[in-house]
Design a protein that fits this description.
Number of strands: 10
Radius of gyration: 20 Å
CATH class of the largest domain: Alpha Beta
Keywords: Signal
InterPro entries: NMT1/THI5, SsuA/THI5
Protein name: NitT/TauT family transport system substrate-binding protein
CATH architecture of the largest domain: 3-Layer(aba) Sandwich
Structural class: alpha/beta
């Protein structure tokens, strides 16, 4: 068997690249990865790869730099202070192209953005279409500027329906006619514990908001000068996500709680369960191409929707926002249980 064929077969069988199996004999490459918020279950795959030694098996010594309200890890990555960054939706990546910022998405570990709208059950707001009847849709400024513009263009929602959202569930709980934004992995539990009822949950991704999320971004310079490093980080992170979802994630959860002492086991377990239930990480193309998958067709679909919503001009070369070079290789599929 020729070396290249042996390498490919070994990668498929073990879930590791050939060079990863030999990386322990080499000095580890130091890598910094900035997240976009404080440590939480939605970052679990990266903490898993750190906790179980997957990054080291790929020759990487990874430092996770948590984000937060006073952090700007995206900027730190774009100016070379961080190697990789955990992006949000593709809106940010398209905006980077628009502003000529030389960053690029190299993987998307969430097939669905976990953004949801919540409503009170039994109040005539039990379907997504019903939400247009509410005049108290509680949204953040960022929500208004992004997904609500799509809701207006696609479904006819109106600006006058929006009320400011201060990331406090109390106004929603007190107003049975209200609708509130949130994440499927956290807010439904918060509201149930505070108010004693389970809200209706509408995942925007399941209604056509087709962005990828929890992306891995880096600078074009890094991708062009050190593609091997990018590939190893993407592959190791992807394997981390398989092991977090389907394996023993105890050590990863401990690391998350180390970086975020306010995090609870209850919320971590809820987040893990909802990511699996709703196919946030492992659904669609990821089921055949592997976690982290991206396709040109999906990118075009979302960009066209954002053009219709008025967020971008149709002549923007959105394809500069991402590359498929490092994904869709089936890495880690054998680890799924």
């Amino acid at each position: 068997m020729k070396l290249n064929a042996w390498v490919a077969a070994g990668a498929l069988a073990a879930g590791f690249s050939w060079f990863a199996g030999n990386a322990m004999a080499q000095p580890l490459t130091e890598v910094t990865f900035g997240t976009n918020w404080i440590a939480q279950g939605e970052h679990g795959g990266y903490y898993q790869a750190l906790a179980d030694g997957t990054y080291e098996k790929y020759g990487l010594k990874v430092t996770i730099v948590p984000g937060g309200p006073r952090a700007n890890n995206r900027m730190l990555m774009s100016v070379g202070k961080l190697d990789f960054y955990m992006g949000g939706s593709m809106i940010q990546a398209f905006s980077a192209v628009e502003k000529d910022i030389p960053t690029i998405v190299v993987a998307a570990h969430f097939q669905k953005e976990p953004q949801v709208l919540l409503s009170h059950p039994g109040q005539g707001l039990d379907t997504f279409a019903d939400l247009k009847k509410s005049n108290d849709i509680l949204l953040s400024k960022d929500g208004v500027a992004t997904f609500f513009q799509w809701m207006k263009a696609e479904f006819g929602f109106r600006d006058e329906q929006v009320k400011p959202f201060g990331f406090n569930p109390a106004p929603f709980i007190a107003n049975k006619a209200a609708v509130q934004q949130g994440y499927v992995t956290s807010e439904p539990l918060t509201i149930e514990k505070a108010a004693g009822f389970k809200p209706n949950v509408f995942l925007l991704a399941d209604h056509g908001f087709s962005t990828y999320s929890t992306t891995v971004e880096t600078r074009r310079e890094v991708m062009e000068k050190n593609p091997d490093l990018v590939q190893r980080f993407v592959d190791a992170s992807t394997i981390g996500w398989y092991n977090y979802l389907y394996g023993d994630n105890t050590k990863a959860k401990e690391l998350i709680k180390r970086d975020n002492p306010e995090m609870t086991d209850e919320l971590l377990n809820f987040s893990h369960a909802k990511m699996k239930e709703y196919g946030i990480v492992d659904s669609g193309d990821a089921q055949t191409l592997g976690i982290g998958a991206m396709t040109d067709a999906r990118m075009k679909d979302f960009f066209d929707k954002m053009v219709k919503a008025g967020l971008f001009k149709p002549d923007l070369d959105y394809t500069k926002a991402y590359t498929l070079r490092f994904v869709n290789k089936g890495v880690g599929l054998n680890l799924k249980k």
